[in-house]
Amino acid sequence: NAGVMQNPRHLVRRRGQEARLRCSPMKGHSHVYWYRQLPEEGLKFMVYLQKENIIDESGMPKERFSAEFPKEGPSILRIQQVVRGDSAAYFCASSPRAGGQSSYNEQFFGPGTRLTVL
Amino acid sequence: AQTVTQSQPEMSVQEAETVTLSCTYDTSENNYYLFWYKQPPSRQMILVIRQEAYKQQNATENRFSVNFQKAAKSFSLKISDSQLGDTAMYFCAFNGGSQGNLIFGKGTKLSVKP
Question: In this complex, is the C-beta atom of A44 within 8 Å of any C-beta atom belonging to chain B?
Fold first, then answer.
């Protein structure tokens, strides 16, 4: 059973371009979390999706960022008109069960995509 | 706000020695889960150990154990018989989000010296 896959592993964009990050969850997992890790920082939650639904996007900037998890295919985190401050490592984690307050749903992390904005 | 604090940005330990990494957190919840993740230079996030808040017994996984003090909201990680492969960033986390998302500390960079 393959683990969580993310691609590309490294992405370089110039300011103003678009960045698309892809995450394929583990087989049988229909829940995906996206996290961002700025240099010298811990991971910060961005968005939680189930198939075809955004459940919680409270950690995602309101502008330029969007996420989707279609019925078929990987989850996509899209950043429009990237700026230097978007340079970070972006991780996705998948889970077999729905998340909930104080409940345990083990999250399996992908290797991350390192985005560099020139 | 729910927060996780790791007060040791960097630590070092000699190979085969024992080291303890500190973590405190803040939550008003009574039931939650706590985790320690390891992030080696490859950047892959690896779950080291987890603790259920309703369990009084401290979790243990081989050379890794925790000291969980619920009243003090403290969750330290002890690594015994340190190995060179333990060199990594270590993140403390708990699932404090309303949808089970993890809240992470800033991490402790551990170096194991030969």
Answer: yes
Above 80 in pLDDT, residue B70?
Answer: yes
Instruction: Provide the terminal-to-terminal Cα distance of chain A, rounded to the nearest Å.
Output: 37
Q: What is the pLDDT of residues A71-106, one digit of tens each?
A: 999 999 999 999 999 999 999 999 887 766 556 678
* Pairing, β A5-7 against β A19-24: antiparallel
- The CA-to-CA distance between both ends of chain B, in Å, stands at 41
Task: Judge residue A5's burial from the number of C-beta atoms within 10 Å of its C-beta, 0-12 exposed, 13-18 middle, 19 or more buried.
Answer: middle
Plot region of B53 (φ>0 → left; ψ -120 to 50 → alpha; else → beta)? alpha
Using an 8 Å Cβ cutoff, are B64 and B36 in contact?
A: yes
CB contact under 8 A, B99 and A112: no
The reported pLDDT for the residue numbered A102 is 54
Distance of CA A27 to the CA centre of its chain: 17
Q: How many CB atoms lie within 10 A of CB A19?
A: 22
A26-40 pLDDT, tens digit each: 998 989 999 999 988
Angstroms from A47 CA to nearest CA on chain B:
9
Separation in Å, CA of B49 to nearest CA in chain A: 12
Contact A104 B33 (CB under 8 A): yes
